[in-house]
Amino acid sequence: xxxxxxxxxxxxxxxxxxxxxxxxxxxxxxxxxxxxxxxxxxxxxxxxxxxxxxxxxxxxxxxxxxxxxxxxxxxxxxxxxxxxxxxxxxxxxxxxxxxxxxxxxxxxxxxxxxxxxxxxxxxxxxxxxxxxxxxxxxxxxxxxxxxxxxxxx
Length: 153
What we know:
The chain is mostly helical. It has 4 helices and 2 strands, in the order αααββα. Strands 1-2 form a two-stranded antiparallel sheet.
């Protein structure tokens, strides 16, 4: 969906309909955040599968993942829309604004908070999960090598 909305964005913004442009910008923002949220959930799942291997039963795990994967981006978008729906749009056409025929977030501070900071937090989470999984794999590998040396004697 993210790719479809992105590819249709310029064409839909050419109709010069503010409501349509706001809708397209909201959808683009939502699907972008949802894609990154699902990436974060994948890293959490990877952590649970490789580090917390035993006794990890989460009741209704898929339902909780779906609520987080689709719900957290919806909360962010709802907050932005409640504050001011005009944060979305295609801006005023000018030579200094290269995104004038593209429906997206118009305020820089909103963009930095609702996209850049969001993606950065997910990047930090993914990095922490990755390092934890690597350390766990290294630990298992070193324990296996010690056992095999012990049995070879």
